[in-house]
Amino acid sequence: MTETSPSNARGAALAFIIVTVVLDSLALGVIIPVLPKLVVEFEGGDTARAAQIFGVFGTVWALMQFVFSPVLGALSDRFGRRTVILVSNFGLGLDYVLMALAPSLGWLFVGRVISGITAASFGTAGAYIADVTPPETRARGFGMIGAGFGLGFVLGPALGGLLGGMGPRVPFWIAAVLSLANATYGFFVLPESLPPARRAPFSWQRANPVGSLTLLRSRRQLVGLSTVMFLRNVAHDVLPSTFVLYTGYRYGWDTRTIGLTMAAMGVCGMIVSAGLVQPVVTRFGERRVLLAGLGFGTAAFAVYGLAPTGLLALAAVPLQALWSLDAPAAQGLMTRVMDPSEQGQLQGAQSSLRGIGGMIAPGLFTQTFARAIDTHGTWHVPGAPFLLAAALLGSALVLASRVTRRTADARR
Description:
The protein has helices at 6-30, 35-42, 47-79, 81-101, 105-118, 122-132, 138-164, 170-189, 204-207, 209-213, 220-236, 238-251, 255-284, 286-306, 310-313, 316-323, 326-336, 343-372, 384-403, 405-410. It has 412 residues and is mainly α.
């Protein structure tokens, strides 16, 4: 009987984490095309009322991410990553069963609340990567997580649209099967990445969302990089908030064109995240890659906002894909300044920031778009939300350059 080498065991664990992210994001993506329709069904066909309720669903889901991401991160620092990841996966699977069986809108709402809590385990997956990879290859691991997340969201909505034709609750059952199967598989193959000697006591001060953010103030560079990532995440949400409305209004794109374009975005982003992150970080260093990625993102949103035709707007897709370089580089820089026992708390705090952005961005960009196309307004700039996103990324680029300069000088 041959023994498994540590490198092979580490590779198998990393593969499971990536598959977990793919299946979790796939499960989330599968329900995207049918959840609004299910809300409309519960509201007796009143689309306007359903839209209001669906907006509340989205805000509450982001709120749960904000509240519970640091809790799960702190729990993973205390009890290990494996336990938190597996419990979250099982919980997410059972939650999809609940939503598939939901007899009323109230029960569906409860399901979305639980989904927001259990989906907060994405941060724990990031902490697992930080545990098992050395600092010099950590950006590649985070890049693979980004690629896995992108793959799930490319395949999920497409699969959900097909399954939705069989009934609005069918995708929920498929999402449940995916999550439960993945959790069961992980129970047998996923090793623990955080040994007892490196664990930290659980503290509500560290676990509550406000208290967890104090960690980000503990180191100067961490404050700056966290602000960069917050601006980045807010800017990113211009895409799910307004892309469909914008391209349909300005370019007359139909559902098929929009779907193909979004699929192209996902595929290009996966190629960059999975194939380019580690080589370019090795060649140019995390700081330069972070700045370049933010520059590409700024350019991409500027093109979306200014392009007078749909064909020219497509030029932003490869620029947007190269933007995917920034997040793994930033995460790699942040994990370098943290102790092993703080990695879960760091990822939880970052997830909380994403939750805050998720609560701010939809209203910010949709209201900007509404005012920009208001026929009674004094100005008509349909691309205003994308220009705002470009401005946010440009600000993040300037800030990133300043906060990482000291580290770059120290390494010379």
